[in-house]
Write a structure and sequence with these properties.
The protein is mainly alpha-helical and 436 residues long. The chain has helices at 2-13, 35-54, 58-65, 67-74, 78-96, 99-106, 108-125, 131-160, 165-193, 198-203, 206-222, 229-238, 249-278, 283-295, 297-308, 315-334, 340-350, 353-363, 368-386, 388-400, 404-424, 430-435. Helix content is 78%, strand content 0%.
Length: 436
């Protein structure tokens, strides 16, 4: 499938338009970036996107599956564990905002390559540096790499596949969901197979990250020739002044939508397995339930972006996903163990607000540079909004002695998520709004 898509996209890049909306000059076969070279590079980009996406969540969901063991091993309180589940969005907010400037200076491929190296290093060292502070530092290093890659994936999709934003965002989102689900499903049994040490169960995911370094190293060294249409478009956009993105109402709506869906997602990844375990579900089954929640996103993450790009307004999809979330939270509150599989399924559908948000980032800007700014703003501001959520859940859980108040909080946040998602789904671009 990837080879077919890459071939199709190569034909697209040699056609008559670029993502800037202007004509693309015909590229001679004898130029430095000939057709064969461009076809090889495009296939490598597809492979790189898939491998990068596979690595954007295992650092988080593998920890969620072993959170109780990590807490016991490091002597964490419930509040500190809540802080630990808040570290991902905090790092994404802090480091994601740097991605566009780094991409302008070094190129997107080089920055993503550095991100994959940071993920590998962070996952290697965090189980073994000793103590809670060292564990947090190792996690922060991995999450820094995830943050810049998060922001630049929509940029790379828009740059290389301007006429296939929905399909390629779907492929990327599907791979991301697959990596998320795999880490949730196999971390506990893999830990048992490796002798029962949570450190072994966490460090093994560094191998997957190391594999993702390879294609991005080749792409960073490749430094596409000036004849490459994707490079010409990118170089032209780098010279343009930055948008005043904060003037765009759509950008703000998308940032808040991104933040609220991220709040729900990181609460789910960090705490859902523990909710089921406290309801009497075994640790392995709780891990499988979390995996089901993440695995639902694998097919839907491919379908939803394709559907979204065919609709003039994405609001109806936002509402459907939100209603599934409300139903799942109601089930967790009333019968967490009795209907566990149904609640896991419903919450997995609700979590597909993430690929929808990524798709809207690509649709709400006309140019690659606009997508870079919108992606950085929406994700950085959004993740900043999401920081208090997992921490507040940990505090409420510790002080109330149960999951009633935390689940009520999760359900309550779903209502404004639907409202701002409808606003973000309107058919308009940030360039037009910023100019006005």
């Amino acid at each position: 499938m990837m080879v077919g898509m890459a071939s199709e996209e190569t034909r697209t890049l040699k056609s008559t338009t670029t993502d800037t909306g202007g004509p693309a000059a015909s590229v001679p076969a004898t130029s430095g970036g000939g057709p064969a070279t461009r076809a090889w590079t495009t296939r490598l980009v597809v492979v790189g996107i898939v491998l990068a996406a596979l690595n954007l969540r295992p650092a988080i969901t593998s920890l969620g599956a072993l959170l109780e063991e990590v807490r016991d091993g490091l002597g964490m309180s419930g509040s500190v564990a809540g802080l630990l589940t808040s570290v991902p969005p905090l790092c994404f907010a802090a480091f994601g905002v740097m991605a566009p400037r780094l991409a302008r200076r070094f190129g997107p491929s080089t920055v993503v390559c550095a991100g994959m190296l940071a993920i590998t290093a962070g996952l290697l060292i965090r189980p073994y540096v000793g103590g809670t502070a060292g564990f947090l530092a190792g996690s922060a290093l991995a999450l820094m790499g995830i943050a810049v890659s998060n922001v630049l994936m929509p940029v790379i999709v828009k740059r290389w596949f301007p006429d296939r934003v929905g399909s390629m965002t779907g492929l990327y989102s599907m791979a991301l969901a697959l990596g998320t689900a795999a880490a949730a499903a196999v971390t506990v049994p893999m830990t048992d197979a490796l002798g029962g040490s949570w450190r072994s169960g966490l460090v093994v995911w560094a191998g997957l990250a190391a594999a993702a370094v390879l294609p991005w190293t080749a792409l960073a060294r490749h430094r596409e020739a000036p004849a490459d249409p994707a490079s010409r478009a990118w170089e032209g956009e780098r010279a343009r002044p930055e948008l005043r993105i904060t003037r765009s109402r759509t950008a703000w709506a998308l940032a808040v939508f991104f933040g609220l869906q991220a709040t729900a997602a990181y609460i789910t990844m960090g705490w859902m397995a523990q909710i089921f375990r406290d309801a009497g579900v075994s640790a392995s089954t709780a891990g499988l339930l979390l995996a089901v929640t993440m695995a639902v996103g694998v097919p839907l993450a491919f379908v939803i972006p394709r559907v979204a790009t065919r609709l003039p307004h994405q609001g109806p999809i936002v509402v459907v996903l939100g209603l599934c979330g409300l139903a799942g939270y109601a089930g967790l509150y009333l019968a967490p163990a009795g209907g566990a599989w149904a609640w896991a399924l419903l919450l997995g559908i609700a979590n597909c607000a993430f690929p929808l948000a990524l798709t809207m980032v690509g649709m709400r800007a006309r140019t690659g540079a606009g997508v870079a700014q919108l992606s950085a703003f929406a994700q950085s501001a959004g993740y900043l909004i999401s920081v208090p959520g997992p921490l507040l859940v940990g505090v409420l859980y510790q002080h109330s002695g149960g999951w009633g108040l935390p689940i009520a909080l999760m359900a309550g946040l779903m209502v404004p998520q639907m409202a701002v998602g409808v606003l973000a789904g309107r058919d308009r671009t940030v360039e037009d709004e910023a100019a006005r």
